[in-house]
Specification:
binds phosphoric acid mono(formamide)ester, 2 domains, 309 residues, Rossmann fold, alpha/beta, binds norvaline
Length: 309
């Protein structure tokens, strides 16, 4: 049994095997309707509990469909439905759910809550997003980049806007997969210094730049995310500081001519990105959203010791 709490904890060899399996399984079911199970049904009889303390479209539907295609079942638990939402401890929730299901996915704010759940669960726990990281999403991002541009190693990515959970996970990934990141972020919104230092120690170049133009120059991938993440208060000063980092056609024209545009979604069209970019020729955001499903199937198999299937 293995938890999937973060990219660093899983380690580069496992992450690469997970991506390889995701691609093989995606190819193997080409042409099947979305609700048809994979022919081998490797998780037949298995159940995933999905605990959401924050909203979700992609994570919720892709995990539920992932379990269905693998032959198993998913149970959706929003925090308002379960006793954890009115004070039952994380530890007791972990102990209880572990008696009913084979794996637990949690989306929450405090990263410590995820770690506490994993500490007390006797089944694998998967990080479905915390304020610190979003590893399932970044695995889909790497997979999608490689689908369109080949090996990610050695490439340069530009991150524009907020140094949030997505930026931090991408930085972790850069160290593990061997690529480089130019961060175009306003003063005061840089990602965690420790996460940047670890990626640099692994050999990736992380540059924090105050100019969006400098950040995208020659980049093979340009990525951004909401300026205000879920449960963040409206903040006029932050929104003002972010304006100079909006991804526009003029900005993306300064990247590599074949640059891809990524966004984990949901997008706030007209804020961090314009319609012309997200709906334009560089954008691969819908492939990126689809790959959540394929990569999470491989993550589930890895967690449950069935990666070779
Ligand atoms: N990208 C992502 O995690 O989307 P949801 O919030 O819709 O799950
Ligand atoms: N940074 C965003 C990501 C949403 C998938 C948030 O945490 O709300």
């Amino acid at each position: 049994m293995q938890h999937f709490l973060g990219l660093t904890e899983a380690g580069a060899p496992a992450l690469k095997r997970i991506l390889a399996l995701a691609k093989v399984r995606r190819d193997a079911r080409k042409g099947l309707p979305t609700g048809a199970p994979d022919s081998d049904k490797p998780l037949e009889g298995h159940t995933l509990a999905m605990v959401f303390e924050k909203s979700s479209t992609r994570t919720r539907v892709s995990f539920e469909q992932a379990m269905h295609q693998l032959g198993g079942t998913a149970i959706m638990l929003s925090s308002s439905d379960i006793q954890m939402g009115r004070g039952e401890t994380v530890a007791d929730t972990a102990r209880t759910l572990s008696r009913y299901v084979d794996a637990i996915m949690l989306r929450t704010s405090a990263h410590g809550k995820l770690l506490e759940l994993a500490q007390h669960a006797t089944v694998p726990v998967i990080n479905g997003l915390t304020d610190q990281t979003h590893p399932c999403q970044v695995m889909a991002d790497i997979m999608t980049y490689e689908d369109h541009r080949g090996h990610v190693a050695g490439s340069t990515w530009a991150w524009l806007g907020d140094g949030n959970n997505m930026a931090q996970t991408l930085i972790e990934a850069s160290g593990l997969f061997g690529f480089h990141i130019n961060l175009g972020v306003p003063e005061g919104y840089a990602p965690d210094a420790c996460i940047m230092a670890k990626a640099k120690m692994l050999g990736s170049t992380i540059r924090v730049l105050k100019s969006a133009n400098e950040a995208v120059a020659g980049a093979h991938a340009v990525a951004t995310d909401a300026w205000l993440s879920m449960h963040q208060q409206d903040n006029a000063d932050k929104l003002l500081a972010m304006q100079a980092f909006q991804v526009t056609p003029t900005l993306i024209a300064q990247a590599d001519p074949r640059a891809v545009f990524l966004h984990c979604l949901p997008a706030h069209r007209g804020e961090e990105v314009t319609d012309a970019v997200i709906d334009g020729p560089h954008s691969i955001v819908w492939d990126e959203a689809e790959n959540r499903l394929h990569v999470q199937k491989a993550i589930l198999l890895w967690c449950l010791g069935k990666l070779e299937i």
